[in-house]
Amino acid sequence: AGGVQLEAMFVDEGFGSLDSEALQQALAALVGVSGGSRIVGIISHVAELKDRIDRQIIVTKDRSGGSRVQVQA
């Protein structure tokens, strides 16, 4: 009663210090809370995550100093 329901959660750079096993456990927990109408967004530079996340928004710096955005679904 009176609880707050979260529809979106973003994790910003929360994976860099995790070993492979802890990273797997963290991702499994995030998959567990996502789904239905809930969205989980991950902001990270950890290369190992690229292979494990199927939908990505990739932002890179371009030569003019601006940003390039690529969506992979």
Describe this structure in words.
- Keywords: Exonuclease, Hydrolase, Nuclease.
- This is ATP-dependent dsDNA exonuclease SbcC.
- One of its GO terms (molecular function) is exonuclease activity.
- It comes from human gut metagenome.
- With 73 residues, the protein is of the alpha+beta class.
- It has a single domain, classed as P-loop containing nucleotide triphosphate hydrolases (Rossmann fold).
- The protein is 25% helix and 30% strand.
- The chain contains two helices and four strands; from the N terminus they run βαβαββ.
- The strands form two sheets. A two-stranded parallel ribbon has the order 1-2. A two-stranded antiparallel ribbon has the order 3-4.
- Strand 1, helix 1 and strand 2 (39-43) form a beta-alpha-beta unit.
- The protein is globular, with a radius of gyration of 15 Å.
- It starts with 7 loop residues before the first strand and ends with a strand.
- The relative contact order is 0.19.
- The model has no long low-confidence stretch (mean pLDDT 89).
Defining traits:
30% strand, 2 helices, alpha+beta
Which sheet architecture does the biggest sheet show?
A: 2 strands, parallel
Strands of the biggest beta sheet: in what spatial order?
Answer: 1-2
- N→C terminal distance: 37 Å
Mean pLDDT: 89
Helix content: 10-25%
CATH class: Alpha Beta
CATH superfamily descriptor:
P-loop containing nucleotide triphosphate hydrolases
Global morphology: globular
Radius of gyration over alpha carbons? 15 Å
